[in-house]
Design goal:
The structure is a homodimer of 348-residue chains. Chain A folds into 3 domains: 44 residues, 434 Repressor (Amino-terminal Domain); 135 residues, Response regulator (Rossmann fold), CATH 3.40.50; 131 residues, Rossmann fold, CATH 3.40.50.2300. With 348 residues, chain A is an alpha/beta fold. In chain A, helix 1 crosses helix 2, helix 5 packs parallel to helix 14 and helix 11 crosses helix 12. Chain A contains 14 helices and 11 strands. Chains A and B meet through helix 4, helix 5, strand 2, helix 6 and helix 12 of A and helix 4, helix 5, strand 2, helix 6 and helix 12 of B. The structure holds a DNA duplex (30 and 30 nucleotides).
Chain lengths: 348, 348
Amino acid sequence: MTKKPTIDDVAARAGVARTTVSRVLNNGPNVRDEVRDKVRTAVAELGYQVNAQARHLASGSSRQIALIHATDTEAEPNSYYHSGLELGALRACAEKGYTLVTHTANPVKEEDDRRIIDLARGGQYDGLILTPPYSDRLDLVRAIIGHGCPLVCVSAGPESQQLAPWVGIDDRAAGEALGTLLTELGHRHFAYIDGIEGHISAGMRLQGFTDALEKTGLDSTAIRVVRGNFTFKSGVELAADILGVQDRPTALVCANDDMAAGALLTAHTLGLQIPADISITGFDDTPVSEIVWPPLTTVHQPIRQLGARAVEQLVGGIQSAGEPRASVDSYVAFWVVERLSTAANRNS
Amino acid sequence: MTKKPTIDDVAARAGVARTTVSRVLNNGPNVRDEVRDKVRTAVAELGYQVNAQARHLASGSSRQIALIHATDTEAEPNSYYHSGLELGALRACAEKGYTLVTHTANPVKEEDDRRIIDLARGGQYDGLILTPPYSDRLDLVRAIIGHGCPLVCVSAGPESQQLAPWVGIDDRAAGEALGTLLTELGHRHFAYIDGIEGHISAGMRLQGFTDALEKTGLDSTAIRVVRGNFTFKSGVELAADILGVQDRPTALVCANDDMAAGALLTAHTLGLQIPADISITGFDDTPVSEIVWPPLTTVHQPIRQLGARAVEQLVGGIQSAGEPRASVDSYVAFWVVERLSTAANRNS
DNA sequence: ATCAGAATTGGGAGCGCTTCCAATTTTTGA
DNA sequence: TCAAAAATTGGAAGCGCTCCCAATTCTGAT
């Protein structure tokens, strides 16, 4: 294997200066078409590829973006959520000429917060994308911004939204839509399986949901809220507690699909008919909601689009640093998907 | 924000030469403990971080590994498989001081094969990890190796295994184990939903399965094989075809869990009792197999471990280039997990 | 023709690090 | 005690690219 050609080899072959080749490579202005072609030909003939490392060093920017995922040690929570987000981001990056690098961090380890900050400080990345619950860690967000590192928060709560660019759905409105649906179906007695603490957008869903109940004249006694951790397992366990009582609710709302799937399993185990005995809803509309039986009524969240939008937002900010950035919409549309896991309250 | 400190700042502060700092940073030999401490102190005081770009340029290696995932345009096949593999690889990379970069490619686009080769040629990555079906594209594998780029194939077929280091389970044996289980349960009439063409390891599973049938004296007329594409949807559709006939099989074997989940849905829709009317099995033991009802009998494939092992294999090869590499086991253990989707053939 | 101004090219200084090699100091062995 | 070997340091040359700035060539309006 002979040595890789460098920009100087291309320059020599094309009979121009290195600077000119660089211009062509970067689509710079002020190069005659004739010269441009000559250089392009030389590039093709030599099979030249720019050395990304050298380019990064010289230009000071790496065209790499880091995506921070939260993963607990052993749980594999929300795999569809993570991979959907990543896939969307990956494609958007490819389109924009950036490379996406995924990093995982454990939200319960404090040292990992430090690691994320180091990522921002390191200058290795042109920007960071933070997912929940990191996108709601205000100190973290401030620290990253303080180091001058471009940042976009995915599904962040209102406070984070004040600090940094963000993308997400209107979680409150989504929760409200779900609440409206269920109250219109005649339900008056609910349970809600929330997500982990510090996941503000999940909290907003609950907020919106109770808002809807209040509009129907219900108060907080109409709903029992318990805290899960977004995993299937926690859905299984918490549902056992919720559905095993005498006076069980007629509708169980879960902060994501995985927990709803777990609740479904428990309901089956208890011999309950769904949706006749209990309506169950999820959130996200990941493939899980169609895999289970009966398929879940849920809120469709365009996760891939969220990932793509985050990248666009970030790249937009990077490229127009200082200037009036072309504003990308932060809100992405959601909608309720009615499937077979919900029905009218037969007691109403 | 003041400028980032460089290695020269550290050297100046510690009162040594840049070379010495470099040695300390890279845990090189021949530095007195006293000096080492002095340098470490200076690093800490300045909050110095090495500039990865510069290091890469100077050292010629990036300590970055690329993981190639196959993703069809719109399908989100095997999300759990991909993210499990990635998570395992990610953690192993972090441990080894490498960075993992995921790239997606569309197996039906020929230009994407070219892109993968360019990744290998580019010298940007110290090595590549190929997943199916790319790990079975012999031309691709040869091209990558030909460019001198270290490579590990995940779940590759026998031919690829001849060409490059690999990790995977013994798919043939796994298929055989499943076949043995089902024949012992008295089943004699099977259907098999295979994976996409060119996914050799899925083919090996079928091979092993039929081997088991043969040992029971059954021949190829005992099994009907159809080709799916690993998605839930294809499971739904193909199962309709398989289960809708008069003389339907008593056991349906699927090349992955997603398709089995789809088959399960179709079976429900057709009003079949599972496992009384039909036994259904998956493959991989992704979370899907516990989410569906009834939970799937399947083959547990330690996917995260596979990802981690791939990285270890690759890094081992990179670091001991030329030398007798510390051989990492290519085979990872699998085992059959019996859940509720299978039962004895009641007609037997 | 003539010349200001724009467009196009090239020269060369780094970007921050690793690494070869030479210089210096310390250790070892008779 | 002293030379030879080993351990420790430093000097300096790049790695391959971008980008500032100066040099050159080309416009078009006088």
